[in-house]
Every structure is written in structure tokens, then in C-alpha cells.
Here is the input.
Amino acid sequence: MIKNRFSLGFLALFIVVIFSCKSKQATVKETSPPPPPNSDISEKVETTDAVVNALLLGLTNLEGVTAERIETQNESYDYMFELQIEQPVDHFDVSKGTFKQKVYLSHLDFNKPMVMYLNGYTAGSNSYVTEAAQILESNQIHVEHRFFSNSRPETIPWDLLTIEQSAYDHHRIVELLKTFYTKPWVSTGISKGGMVTIFHKRFFPNDVAVAMPYVAPLNTERHDPRVYEHLNNVGTEECRNAVTEYQRELLIYRDEALALFEKYSDKAGYVYPHGLEASFELSVLEFSFAFWQWSGDCATIPSQESSVEDKMKYLFYTIDAPSFFNESTLTDILPFFYQGYYEIGMYGYEVDKFKGLTQIYTEEVDNYRTFIPKDMDVIYNPEPVRDVINWLDENGNNMIYIYGDLDPWGATAYEPTENTNSLFLNLENGNHGTRLINFPQDTRAAAMDSLQVWISRR
Here is the structure.
């Protein structure tokens, strides 16, 4: 368990900072950062509530920030706050208004590093402690992505949901909170959050000492063909055949399978905007991607001799492919789908293996209208991600990329060039849940050593 430390020096400092800050100051840089705490008395402080209240007041005196202390959601931290940080809707034209972005702050020690955990979606809670924060025994912030959940303006200007705008959001957060957290910063994120971590690093490389993206694809086409290539070659031939045969069985016994699909959808409370039959076929086609993303354990696939009901239970309760086409999913993560078809890429489904078995999706499935509403038109632009890759090739230093080799999102993984010092870790038989702790001890140790060395140089 991580211990918490405050100091009387910081209590005095916060009083100075609070009263020296101008109300709604023009820039955060006008406020001097705090000096290191007095280590001689940091363990003797009995007025922690006063210090926490001073921190809370100091946060609310930052430009465009509101803050409240919340109940701790993880035993690693005694002090947690929820911040609402005002962000420009357009960082290049502030006349377009602002929105409030949610950020969770888990405070440990001002004399420790800060880990910025970038969520690519909604930050529903603050219970997760990143591996970087555990390794460094550090403070942590958890940042909700722009235009997800309540971190959005009343009406979303979709053309401003870009990787560059989000990078500027995160840069502003760093600038604000470095007022109090002056030790080295580390950024990290998982999946789309890993992509966001990479994007922030590209635009503001000096914000953080180290970036640790996990299982982060970098697609260079709207439907990157490397995903299909991966699915046709991943694992063993025996396992790939078992995946295909499982999908075919559900389609061969369509009538029984469709009735069971409706039964288990009702139990799950799923509602399908595309209709029952279309969502059934989509779920069967999605299965191969979802299986390799989250499992890869072929021993769990129901055999050809198993009942259709057992096969349907597997589709719902082990892989849960149908949830991807549920109404709430299509609504809640619409910003992700928009970004996929605007800048960061998505994937579709090949159907050649199922010719004569599908009735609705008889050609390659583009998925554009699966996920993008009919009243919305999105034109894909590959250049932003290609620009990021070009920058990484020459400048992407002090980064630790973590992947699992079964994961189809890893089909478009970024592998650093010899021009940089960054590390590429790809776990054999790892899936989308791959973390540093899953690697052999010597690999973990090398990554942790690099993390510590890079931080020590800041």
C-alpha cells in the first residue's frame, strides 16, 4: 500500500500560492511552482485536513478549474479529488466557447512524480491505479477524453474531435497541475487511451519524461488491411479453423441460433438499432476479432458437437460480441466511432468464409453505417496519424510500447525505429489485456530500469 505524506512547508506554501494567484489569471505560469517539502517534518504533520483543504483551495484558484474532494476509490490513495477543467472547444479559436473536462486527481506526495492516465473514452470512476503509478509510487490523474460523457459542450462540433485538439486539452491540464506537481511526469493509457498517449507525446514531447502506451494501434487507412492479414495468420492454423468453424455453425443452424440470440439478448437487455437479424450476423462476424482481442484460448471454444445453445452462451457470456451492437454502445461511444472514421481508422469484416450462409451481409462489411448514424457524414483523413508516425520515427524517445501478439489491434502496432531509444514489448500469446506485469521478469526489470533512468534525467 502506498503511504501518504504531506508537509507543513506545503501548507504554508499553499497559503502563499492561493493569495498570490490572481483570480481567473491569464496564464498558470504566473504562479510560482512550490518548492520541495521539508522532509524533516513531513512525517510529523498532524494537520493533514488543513493541508488537504489548502490543496483544494489552491486547485480551485487555478484558471478555469473547479474541484471537490471525493471519497477515495482505491486503498493506495487517501486523498482524491474530482476536477472540472475548462477547455476551449477549439484551441485555435477560443471564440467558439468552452466545455468542462473531468479529471480525477489521486494525491500521494508532492515530492513524487505524477502519472497522467489518459482515457480514450469515459472516466467512469477513479479506482484504477496504473502500473506506472504503482512502480513509481506516484500521484496520478485520470483524464476523461473530450466529447465523451459529460466532458462536452451542449452541442458537439464533430469536426473538432481531433487528435490534435485532444493533445492540446492534455497539455493545458499538465500546465495547470504542474503549478503544484513539479516532479517528473509520466503519461500512460490503454487501447484508445494508448493512442491518445502517443498523440499527446507527438505534439508536446516535453510535457512528460516518459510515455507508456499500451496496446495502441496506429492505423494508416480507414480499414487497415493489416487487420485482415493478422486475423488470417494469428495463432495456429488449428485454432483459426476452430474459430471459423464456430462462426459457420451458428450461421448453418440459423433459425435455432437466431431464436437463442433473441433469448439471450432479452436477458442482457440489449436493444439493436439495426434489427435482430442484422445484429445476429454482425455479432457472428465480429466474433473472430473479439476472440483474438480478449481471449485467444482455443480450448474454450465450444466443439462442433456442442449444442447451439452452448455456442450462443459462449458468444454472449465469454466474448460478448453482441454488446458491440447494442443501442447504448452505439450511443455512448459514438465519439470513438466518429474518430475511427475521421482520423484513427476502424475495421470491417471479411465474409468469404461464410458465402451462402449470411443473408444480409454478403459482401465485405465496411461497418461505416454500422457505427455512423445516417444523418452524419464523415470523410476519413489519414494524414494526422501518418504525421504522428513520421514524427515518432525520428523523435519518439523515452517511450515504452506494450502489446500482445494475438491482439488484432496490435496488427497496426507502432514499432520504434533505431533512431530512438524507445522500447517495444510484444508479449507472446498476449491479448488486449496485456500489461507489463505479464512479461518475464527480466523484460519487466529492463523496462522499469529505463523508466527510472529517463525520469531521473528530468
In short: Residues 236-371 form one domain. The chain is about 40% helix and 10% strand.
